[in-house]
Amino acid sequence: MGNGSLVTEFILRGLTDDPQLQLILFVILFILYAITLLGNVGMIVLIRISPQLHTPMYFFLTHLSFVDICCSSAITPKFLCDLLKEKKSISYAGCFTQIYFYGVFSTGECFLLAIMAYDRYVAICHPLLYLVTMSQIKCVQLVIISYITGLLHSLVHIIPATWLFFCGPNIIKNFYCEGPALLQLACSDISLNNLLKLVFIGFTLMATILAILTSYTYVLITILKMHSAKARRKAFSTCTSHLMVITIFYGGLAFVYAQPGKSHYTNQIASLLYVVVTPMINPLIYSLRNQDVKVAFKKLLEKQLHSFFIPNIELH
């Protein structure tokens, strides 16, 4: 425990103390979490087994789905368990572990979204160089960089946080171990933690948003210069799904963290939507709005139905 802190566990203040509402909330969140796992795992499997989806864009999408699973799984299972318990607590080590891994994968998602924007820039603005620029080795390197950045970025915040002294109270006003809420409980100086948060989180957000805006500015200019309406529609269709995911991700992030003075209950509702709903929506967006994914899913479904109703029979 940091500096011999007196606190050995933290109490999580859930959305409600009403047992009936907690049960209803458990059922709803369990269904949403199941959809999140099914949708994202299904997207990964579909891309892996469909040769027509073996392109850089869908390679990045498999990792986006993996990161969404990890982000949701860092928080949701614990919250579901707490909804069935009277005492909603988390150990000192468990709290910091939850913060660390959620930070790793949420940071990784920021960089993955920026990388996917760069991928669209190369595909639309430099199509003849696309397969050379976005080679398999380059794609793997970019994904590894996003994961390493997430690991290091989260360490920058979690290590100084473990140096803090916690003497009580130990009530976190949220349903999970949220970094800002945890810092409010510290009995020691948190100026360094706030400085690190401002510098590193600020840099991460500004760098990834700038990369996304720059990439799509060039994409938009290139699309507007196209003479063929069909080519413009095709170029727009490859970008709309990603743009919707970016809007939901950063819009949700801003709604959770960029509203000073909002109530703790409002903050919990916003966090719930961001943590649980956002990872569920991403595969739905790509499956409903992306023509390549719909075609691949249709082919897979037809193949499975054909093999089920017309099995191969070997004659001896």
TrEMBL record:
Q: What is its main location?
A: membrane
- Ranges that cross the membrane: 23-46, 58-79, 99-118, 139-166, 198-223, 235-257, 269-288
Q: Cellular component per GO? A: plasma membrane
GO molecular function terms listed in the Swiss-Prot or TrEMBL record = G protein-coupled receptor activity; olfactory receptor activity
Q: Which SUPFAM superfamilies match?
A: Family A G protein-coupled receptor-like
Q: Which UniProt keywords apply?
A: Cell membrane, G-protein coupled receptor, Membrane, Olfaction, Receptor, Sensory transduction, Transducer, Transmembrane, Transmembrane helix
| Protein name, per record | Olfactory receptor
| Organism name | Crotalus adamanteus
Taxonomic placement: Eukaryota, Metazoa, Chordata, Craniata, Vertebrata
